Amino acid sequence: SMGGFSALYLTVAGIYAVALIVALALLPEPAPAQSGAAGGPGKPGARPARAGADAPVRVIVCTIVTFALIQAAARVATQELPLFVQADLHSSVRQAGVILGLCAGLEIPLMLACGALANRLTSRRLIMFGLLSGCAYLLLASTATHVWMLFAGQILNAASIAATQGLGVSYVADLMPCHPGQASALYS
User: What is the pLDDT of residues 112-143, one digit of tens each?
Assistant: First the structure.
């Protein structure tokens, strides 16, 4: 076939790189949401205060396209992993399941860490870190010659997922403080 799994993973890494370039070049750091009136956030009757106007439509569209690229790349990489492990690395599909399970297990603490770090670092920086982690993982996967290499790379894969998917919806919501419902719908 046309380059096999190495070409596929390099292509997907390229998609992450394009998303990173678009994000670096075009996406601003949104103003953080401010605590609400009527008793603060999370309390009955709380209303989120508007941090300002929504970002320009061009920025919102670029943001959604960037997250769509990230989601597409992540899906392709995940769906093809069992075939790659079996066909190219000559291991069992069960190993692919263990690799995916390891990634899922690492995602949870890393998502919590990203949430905690979001108080000190900007969401944009953490998402950029996630994109770099995704590129690094896919470059590793494209050159993997043994299953252990994919196991080792799951920290990068999980960091990518934790940052981009764990913070993505709040990033979009921060770009659209006047329309939080539309923001979450657009992200989804």
Answer: 999 899 889 988 899 999 999 999 999 999 99
Exposure of 159 in the CB half-sphere (CA atoms within 13 A): 18
Phi, psi of 37 (to 5 degrees): -80, 180
Straight-line distance from the first to the last Cα atom of the chain, in angstroms, rounded to the nearest whole number: 33
- Closest of 10, 19, 39, 30 to residue 179, by C-alpha: 30
The pLDDT score that the predictor gives to residue 33 is: 53
- Give the pLDDT mean for 15-33: 75
pLDDT at 99 over 60: yes
Number of alpha helices (DSSP H) and beta strands (DSSP E) in the chain: 6, 2
| pTM (2 d.p.) | 0.74
The alpha-carbon radius of gyration of the chain (Å, integer) is: 18
pLDDT at 166: 87
Q: Phi and psi dihedrals of 74, rounded to 5? A: -65, -40
Q: List the structure tokens of 154.
A: 């799951």
Tokens of 85: 């492990």
CA distances (Å), 43 to each of 21, 46, 86, in order?
39, 5, 51
Cα dihedral 179, 119, 108, 142 in deg (nearest 10): 90
